[in-house]
């Protein structure tokens, strides 16, 4: 007899129940195939266009993707369970960490001190700052004379 609140008697190798996910995949795939058939019928109709034919060929690919994504999900889950039980690493895991190339990401915002350091070294930035200061002085003079 098993005590309440323990995990005795629970099979570790029993796949988790995923009935709702299976139903979702089947409904999605059937819906995609139905839409593909509907587009095929529209293509064969008098007013059908090649756009309908394109969609008629595209919807079954979406249905295939639904099934493929579910199978991949199940395999990755099983792979993870196996890796946890053996203590090894997953076969789908890369050997070394992947890195994003630095020029792909936008630059990070700089602090005010970093911006000032960079501007101090850049002669063009110094010229622009001097010109902006000159324009600010002109604006202040204009405001005083208008009063």
From TrEMBL:
Transmembrane region(s): 21-40, 52-70
UniProt superkingdom: Bacteria
Name this protein carries in UniProt: DNA-binding transcriptional regulator of glucitol operon
PROSITE patterns: PROKAR_LIPOPROTEIN
UniProt entry keywords in alphabetical sequence: DNA-binding, Membrane, Transmembrane, Transmembrane helix
Region (Disordered): 80-128
GO MF annotation, one: DNA binding
